[in-house]
Amino acid sequence: MSAGPGPSSSGEFDPWAWAGFCVMAVCLSLSFVFIKLSLEGFTPLQSAAGRVVLGAAFLVPLAMMFGDGLPRRLWFWKWSLLLGLCNTAIPYSLLAHGQAQLPSNVVGGMFSLIPLTTIALSVLVLGVRITRRKLVGLFIGFLGLVVVTEPAQWVGQGSAVHALPMLAVLGAIFCLAMSAILIRLMPPVHPLSLMCGSTLVAALFGLVPFATVFDGDLPPLKPWIGLVGVALLSTTIALSLRFWLIRRKGPVFLAPNAYVGVVLVNVFGIAVLGETVTRPMMIAFALIVLGLFIAQDGSGNMKQV
């Protein structure tokens, strides 16, 4: 799985890229379920730290066998530190805190805004020109975000209980959208090596919080299944594929995952966790999907990213 060429303007069908996309979409959607299971026995900080530490343990042998190992170059470790914080340590911690209070399907629906957030950041950070249609799509998609966050609950008694988890998830969305731009800009490197290096750096911040798990009675089997599951599916497989796809096809190629994610997260949340879909969530998801559809205007502007 090499880093691959930049996004192609030829529009040729890439079966390997689409196969990787399908695996990534399923793994990312299932990760919300496994996070929820892990939080039944771990604190949010222990869950976030554990998935990073275990993810690093999975990635090291993979990088050595199928990647380029861990290059002894200063630039590699500078990028590993940056992505370890922006792509792993910070968003994982924020996501665990948010999902401790919110249903997984709400969090998954909010995460479908990552492509739109990436477009907005590309305009602000990289100076990519944006069409009027894409701007309308951004507005509609973010309107869906307003609906799903239920603004009426942001004021009055108990508002902090509602607002803080929402803000945590929004912070995670911003970090992951920014990391997509950073991944596209960084020098060529094998995806497994980069994910291993960045996860190792993030694991340094997670060792102490994860070690607190062993201070008292260990959690039962179910939370451990959740922790190992999210470390393997999301931290190891999905994020490595995400990096590979961004390097191979560009961030715009990942946009359909927002549509797929809204559906799969709700299917898994209802089937496994017994969650329900409320009317505000249905309205919000419809707005987000509509915004994404409009924003994909075929202009090719995002291929510059």
Concise synopsis of the structure shown:
With 305 residues, this protein is mostly helical. Helices cover 73% and strands 0% of the residues.
Written account of the structure:
By secondary structure, the protein is mainly α. Helices cover 73% and strands 0% of the residues. The protein is built from 11 helices and no strands. Helix 3 (74-99) runs antiparallel to helix 7 and helix 5 (114-126) packs across helix 6 (132-148). The longest helix has 29 residues, at 221-249. The chain starts with 14 loop residues before the first helix and ends in a 10-residue tail after the last helix. The model is unreliable at 1-10 and 299-305 (pLDDT under 50).
Give the CA-based shape.
Answer: globular
* β-strand number: 0
- How much helicity do the residues have? over 70%
Low-confidence segments:
1-10, 299-305
Distance between the termini: 21 Å
SSE class: mainly alpha
Domain tally: 1
Radius of gyration: 19 Å
Task: Compile the SSE list and pairings.
Elements: H1 15-38, H2 44-66, H3 74-99, H4 104-111, H5 114-126, H6 132-148, H7 159-185, H8 191-211, H9 221-249, H10 256-273, H11 279-295
Helix pairs in contact: 1-4, 1-9, 1-10, 2-3, 2-8, 2-9, 3-7, 3-8, 4-10, 5-6, 5-7, 6-11, 8-9
Any key phrases for this structure?
305 residues; single chain; disordered N terminus; 0% strand; 11 helices; mainly alpha; globular; disordered C terminus
